[in-house]
């Protein structure tokens, strides 16, 4: 059983504990939410007891998140040490010379001296610089080819400098993870990957846990509002089996899904800009799914990855061609 208490945490390193549930902040699409809504969402999450905020340099909203955090710190609602902040190194900052500067830019925007977890966002490098998706005159993304190990060394130096308490990886496959583990001076403590009822990603979860990494599920509902959703793709939040389970438990489908993630031993970062949903997403510690109910959800898997990252498909370090 993974968690029964509000503010249950996963240990990442000596003295560093990550809350198992937090707020996702990727809201770059106009109608899905703007930067001001992110600010309100962060405040609503903290008010609802949320203590983990999942950010990234390329989300373009770290400054607003920083303002919300600052407001909450000034109000005295929370202290910096109560909040766990994750942010991520973007694909255009893999050059070891750019890594520390990129993190410092995130810290300046977030208005904090350190992050609790700094993630290597994707294993594919784009052309060095601050343009999020650099393209040539034909519209093709311009790649670069930095060795993960060189980038990782620069991330380790961010820990040495006190800018990140811990470091981890996101969207790496098992071979790429093994290479980091075999060569790291400071080991990755967390893998952030897509996991949802329709994309259960079990092999890499088992692999990561057996190698001592904690795992965070992103897109825990399969991001049903994604603009690239195809008409025939199902929406987990409308799944009939999950709805029946939710009715039985007196909970929402979203809460049942989150509870399922927690009972798999994962941390989870649902995104919402809707205060009532943000509150609801934190209220998942007062019920349990039994083994049969967990198995019922396990049978919903349909290997439906929604973050395929098509712009990186032809990069030699594209992670998702491996079995896991
Ligand atoms: N490491 C990576 O490469 C990576 C990639 C993707 C995502 N992430 C992280 O993971 C976070 C979550 O993923 P995601 O944003 O793609 O998708 P998601 O959390 O699976 O889904 C978000 C959608 O669910 C809705 N929602 C949230 N709570 C709900 C509830 N209780 N009831 C009904 N609907 C609800 C939201 O609506 P409203 O907002 O309208 O309320 C939003 O449309 C991101 O924000 C980001 O922090 C990381």
Automatic annotation (TrEMBL):
GO MF terms, alphabetically ordered: oxidoreductase activity
Marked site positions, Lowers pKa of active site Tyr: 88
Statement: the UniProt record of this protein carries the keyword Coiled coil: no
Active site: 59 (proton donor)
Residues that coordinate or bind substrate: 121
Domain NADP-dependent oxidoreductase positions: 21-301
Keywords: NADP, Oxidoreductase
Family listed: Belongs to the aldo/keto reductase family.
Name under which the protein is recorded: NADP-dependent oxidoreductase domain-containing protein
């Amino acid at each position: 059983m993974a968690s029964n208490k509000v503010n249950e945490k996963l240990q990442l390193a000596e003295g560093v504990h990550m809350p198992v549930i937090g707020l996702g902040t990727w809201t770059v699409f106009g109608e899905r939410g703007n930067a001001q809504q992110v600010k309100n969402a962060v405040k609503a999450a903290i008010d609802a007891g949320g203590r983990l905020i999942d950010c990234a340099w390329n989300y373009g909203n770290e400054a607003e998140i920083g303002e919300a955090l600052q407001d909450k710190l000034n109000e005295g609602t929370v202290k910096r040490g109560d909040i766990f902040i994750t942010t991520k190194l973007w694909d255009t900052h893999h050059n070891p010379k750019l890594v520390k500067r990129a993190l410092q830019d995130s810290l300046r925007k977030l208005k904090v001296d350190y992050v609790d977890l700094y993630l290597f966002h994707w294993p594919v490098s784009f052309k060095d610089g601050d343009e999020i998706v650099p393209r040539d005159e034909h519209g093709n993304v311009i790649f670069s080819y930095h060795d993960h190990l060189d980038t990782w060394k620069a991330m380790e130096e961010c820990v040495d400098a006190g800018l990140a308490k811990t470091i981890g990886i996101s969207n790496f496959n098992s071979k790429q993870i093994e290479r980091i583990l075999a060569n790291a001076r400071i080991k990755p403590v967390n893998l952030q990957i897509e996991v949802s009822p329709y994309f259960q990603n079990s092999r890499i979860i088992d692999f990561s846990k057996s190698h001592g990494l904690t795992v965070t599920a992103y897109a825990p509902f399969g991001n049903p509002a994604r603009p690239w959703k195809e008409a025939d793709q199902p929406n987990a939040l409308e799944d009939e089996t999950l709805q029946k389970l939710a009715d039985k438990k007196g909970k929402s489908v979203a809460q049942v899904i989150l509870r399922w993630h927690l009972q798999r031993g994962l941390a989870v970062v649902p995104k919402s800009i809707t205060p009532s949903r943000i509150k609801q997403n934190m209220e998942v510690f007062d019920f349990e799914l039994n083994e049969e109910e967990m198995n019922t959800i396990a049978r919903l898997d349909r290997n439906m990855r929604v973050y395929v990252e098509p712009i990186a498909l032809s990069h030699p370090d594209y992670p998702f061609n491996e079995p896991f």
